[in-house]
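Review box. Two proteins, two foldings.
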Amino acid sequence: MTPEDYDKWYRFNSLGFASEGKWVLFKKSYTDQPDSLFVKEIIGDRLYAIEDCGQLAYVGNKIVIGHCANGRYQILHLASGRMEKMNADKVEVSLNEDYLMMYHKQKKELIIRNLSNGKNAFFFNVYDYSHNPKSNAIAIMSRESTENQLTLVFLNKTLKEVVLLENSSRKVVELTWNAAGDGVAFSMASSESEGEYGDAGELCFYKITKEKMMRIDLNNWGGFPSDKKLVSTWVLPLRITPDDNRILFAFKRKQPVEMKELPEVWKAGDPYIYKGMTYRMHWQNTAKLGIWDVKTNRFIKVTDTLYPQSLINKDASLALLYNPATYQPQSMSKPPIDLYIADLKKERKTLFLKRQLHETSKVSFSPSGRYIQYFREKGWWLYDSKTDVHVNLCKKFENTQLIDYDELTPLLWSKDEDALFMQGSYDLWEVPIGNGEVKSLTNGRKKGVHYHILTKPTVYQKRPQSLYFNRQTQSLIFSVKKGDSMGYAILRPQKKLQDISLSENYVRDPFLSEDERYFSFRMERNDQPSKLMIYDLSSDRLQTLFQSNPHYKNYKQGRSKKIFYRNKDGVLLSGILRFPTDYKKDSLYPMIVRVYEKQGYKRFQYVNPTMYNGSGFNSKNYVNNGYFVFLPDISYTIGEPGFSAADCIISGTKAALKEASIDPDRIGLIGHSYGGFETLFTITQTDFFATAIASAGVTDMVRGYLGLQDRILLSYDMYEHFQHRMGVSLFEDYQGYLDNSPIYHATKIHTPFLLWSGKEDYHVNYHQSISFHLAMKRLGKPNSLLLYPQEGHVLGRPESQKDITIKTEQWFAYYLKDGIKYDWMP
């Protein structure tokens, strides 16, 4: 295989089902031509291509719509195979697929087409629109000159119109429907909302079944602060409670508080750095949450400057309030918080949890809002707001083999909320809220099999996600893993758990059809590209529906082997050794060692050959060109990240030498980001490697610790508690930070190496690479540094990706294969 062959390969993605499981969808993505969507019949031979389209806009029973890169849409009519092209900025379809909505932003024109008779209805001066959950009504927002209008259009034979607002100086800025689709709430604001005396705006709620409009002018609303106004923000979207009694909205100051100090004043005691302080201004400038009680017309303030953030339950009767800055500043990116529980009906609050973990996955309401589940003191607890009782859920596991309660995660509730389903390391558990024992639904621990529920399959696209689960009527899909084998399993109502294709393959993209007859997924091996698999649940039959990149059979693919080794502490580790495609035992081959934490999951992944790589490395390119590629796993010692990484890398590489005909004098090392750090540190500790390439890595831990990540975030947490694994602050182990910094050992380097970075990389600041290059310059050691303009942490522009891929291959060819030395090399 040569680089000229690489463009034959395309990336393959499965996209689910259409027409209640009668068709499957997939996508081909190319490097040198537009992407295309495909729709294939499951029972039958029909295959339709939606060419030059890379995104799905709609999937239904009758039609499939693709969104093309140039803004066009293509509509495939499944019954006939007829393809229809149209120019629009947005295309949507009603749930019954009777009507098609086409919006032209520049023209401000909305067209509603009746798909049964082809007739169009035109609406002009439209700046936005929104259809209800049932797609039987559309709210159309229009503006002509300074006059605004809001019209409801009902998707029936006559397209009946109801004008809710006309000739208004205020513009609708946010609109939302209730869950039933028979009520719409919207907020309005005028162009004169700025300044101390600006317009505060207006809230409206229209109930279709009652043909009744309710309106609140915030300028004259008792209790609403006169210095605040309505705002639209994705963080606090307009929302209607299920009973239609309350509407949640966001508001903020009319006139933001500004920092007028010159120069900038950075105070060590401030909870955030200067930029964060000027944005928040002690929470005076951030949006707050309010409630309009529709029955009483009361304003209820939920958050304020003292408690600026909240979690709120479904019916807006309870809220958890907190201030994320309470225990700032400190090293943790999200320090603990004090949670207060607020009764929003009685408008009172009390302390709920002190110094609680500030992680959204560790505190949440049940779907009804009655219960609060939270993780505390190494266990899960449940609070019942009706009885004011806290229950330790982990005590229910005392008679099981479960030891580490931290592995548990609450995921689903039974419909009547008498049980909670919790995911463990091996199993899904049914946990009764009252009396009763926990029950494993999968029994994986006994078999050594990990079953993890797929809470977001990738189930049928039109089915709304729910936290409720009914064992009597619903199926559950699990990802399954045992050793290196992967697959899926399904638990159907009144049936036993059934494994689907547990084998030594890599699987991904699971989908379940709407009628739950078919289950699809992608399967691949390191020597075979992805194929689309279909499992028929009615007949327990698994078949290959489509093999991607079938031309792979025309080329040698090479093989992959898992090898084992131990680090200096005796920890058993593994690595993946990929063989050259032309491997012969009686010849010696060079090897590239690619490093980055754990990589064992890549054993059966297929890698497309390509010249476009964001990190400059592609293992398939190298095995095609006579190299071994080794991917070692790394085990870290807290406080010694550099030394433990180097130990594992060297131990793994020496173990790989015993497994095949690898030339010990021609081994290269490469890593990106944290792998770049590991690469540089390793070559300060050994001359074992003939050459190395390190990109976007930390070279000076002291400088990194005291720098800003992505220009706005403190780096303390990253170094103390996360990836850099130092365990303590810089000032508790200054020497340890120095010892684990590659630049501290720069004089020990004898290995020629290449550095590169994006000139807009502020995740790992590119000056880290510049500093290391300047150290080499001062020490008189051979080194080249490549800086890519307009690029960040990973190269995104095709020309940059291709350039670094070429230069990486040239570098290794020169140092490991006696190749050509180019002018850019040292």
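Next protein.
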Amino acid sequence: MATSSEPATQSSRNAADRLAVKLRTAWQDLRSCTDGAAHAAALVQQANADLQNLQEMRAWYEETSRQLLMDPLERFLKLQPVKSALDALSMRDPEISPRALNARSRIDKKFQRVLIATALDLPELWRIFRAGSNVAESQSWQKRREAHNKEASALLDRYARWAQKAIGEEKKREEAPRDPRNDLWWRQHRALLETLLVEMAWRNLTLTWFSATETLIGDVHRESEEARSHRSATLRWLEEGARSDLAQDSFALITPEERLRGWALPIESEARLKMAERTELLVGGFRPRLRRIAMRSRFLRAFDVYARKRMRGLIEHSWQMTARVVRDAEQSKEMIAYWGETSLDRPAEASQLIEEARQNAMIALVEEPTLVPVEELNREAVEAFWRWHQAGSLMLEAEQDGWFAFLRRPRARSFLPTAIEMLGLQSRTALLGSAHWVRGRVERTMESVGGRVPTHPVLPPVIRRTTLRDTLALPAAKRELPPLYRLLFRLAPVEDRRFLVGRDQELAGIDQAVTDWEAGRFAACLLIGARGSGKTSLLNCAVRETIANHCLIRSEFNDRLLRPEQLDAFLRSLLGLRGDDDLLKALASERRILILEESERVFLRTVDGFAVVHHLMHLIHRTAATTLWLIVMNDRSFRVLDAATHLHRVFSHRINAMSVSRSDLETAILERHRLSGLRLEFAPPPAGDPRVNRAKRWFGIEDSPQKLFFDSLLQQSEGIFRSAFELWLSSIERVEGDTIHIRQPLDPSFNLFRSELAQEDHFTLLVIQEHGSLTQEELAEVLCESPDKSRGRTERLTALGLIELDPEHPGLRVKPEAQRFVNDLLRRANLT
């Protein structure tokens, strides 16, 4: 027994001694990090108040943040003292007896608390310095550091005494139960690392802010100098007689929104890479606590409030000055061009008119232009940095540690103006939400009761029947537009993927259907969407991306099919079969994808008008193993067919390519417009009560002309691309130089126009929508009336501007700009 007990005693003594040594080493490593931070704090200095150069400000920030924050934290992450202590406990505890472990439990708890508290204090010196070096907080940090050193020294002495007592304790042979405190300590360690990494990410993101801002200032200054050169070249051209081709040149300014997006993009992109959406952080205090925070969204919100808004002012101020210089030059060239054309009708006065115009144009360009100098840009950028560096960091710190803990710190007093501003923003946001809620409730109530009852005006001398164009206040004809612009907004399906906006989920649905079919599972796809919603564009992009590697047959129904034999003949022609070939055998002989568009032309809403649909459903079931059917139709047709034949039961995937959101609609239009190189100018809304306007500005509910336009465009087009593009082109008031002026649309009132339509008109519009388009004979058959009576009604609806000849298929269709009115009309009549 004596010989067998000696190794156990030696092992216990070695394990306890090694643990004490490891813990002492871990504390010494951590203390070296805090000592380095304290030494750096004694050397760094606050920035000079006269510092107005952004590059010098960056150098100061990078150096001070490196000394106070990055060096201590990088050393901590390299040494990992807290992890070393936890590893030592995990490795040595199985070699120590349970009695000795129980005797050490209180020491472990206190030592871990000291380690965590000391590590959390590492970035605190940088936080204090960032907020202005509050003396009381610096002294408090030094006191905590001394207290931690003293307490850690006492605990390490207790570990040494415990290790001496642990000698001779017998090791328990069976495995000891898992201590739940270890899990908590490891969790705190992971949260501690995340907390330190967030501080480092914030510092690196600020350096990215410097890089983006330096690039922005360089680009803005370069554009200003180019505008000055353009103005000087125009003046020289005028002085030389205005006879060269320089007048055809133009100068395109980058819009403030594009500048702002380009500046913010690298910062926001890096934030999404370096900051998790939700992460668990460790908050300091007497008892460190865990907090789960959406750190990325908090950062982006602070960035939007304290960085983006200030930079927007800088960009817009510079842009306005540069735009004034360019506008003067463009107006001078426009004057010469106008008087040059006018003088052609007056040859006797031609030279005098042109000379006078040249002199007048030179007057506006002789005076030296006023542009924002680069020194002022640097000064404004430095002010924006201090706003972002101090207010933004304090707000993020409060969000991270909690407002109650943050407000107890002395530096929270410097945040008082920022807190008041933030509370004001929150109050405005709350009032804005309340105002929108009340407005929405009023609109829904008015809609449910049928709207306000119109007053009875005095009978006018002349009464003219209103039309849809009058109601929508559209111009009589589209304005003359540059050929390139008409090409960009042509009403044709798109082939370019970048023009397909807001259809990512629909493309993914088609890809899933193809994947299931390739795997041997049953798959048949139904694509539904309103007329002009972009179904064909969606298919074009799907064919180029998803279906490119498969055998594909794509066609559409041009004529209406009412008998199964007609459908078989149509499919035989697609497959290149003779009239006596077996259709089912041919479909089963080869794997292919079959796309059939305009499928609303395979039925007629009559008693025996659904035979072709039933036959098509039968073919899909019989041939789905080798043929992936992709059937395309509009939403109204699907409702009728589903009610009559339960069409949805046939398909494994149904893609609803319906209306898009306002942001997608705006992106689709502005992306096309951007490629034209022209500028946009939206007309302001009509002037109202100044007191109401001031109240709206205070509450933050005063919308920009651009937002008002696209809100109205979304309502009038109901999110349908084709309707939106036609309304966009119709809303162009004029084209002046390189600027397109868009008139401000108003939400039309359909009350008067609605009274022009009778119940028979409602049913006529309904069945035309359900079939996509109908000829006069088909319409008469569906409505069970004579062709003459049907023709008279459709001619009247055409005169009202509600229907027109379908340019692509036989029959009449509902006009794209009338879709909103017709849908609202049928909904009010309980027909949809």
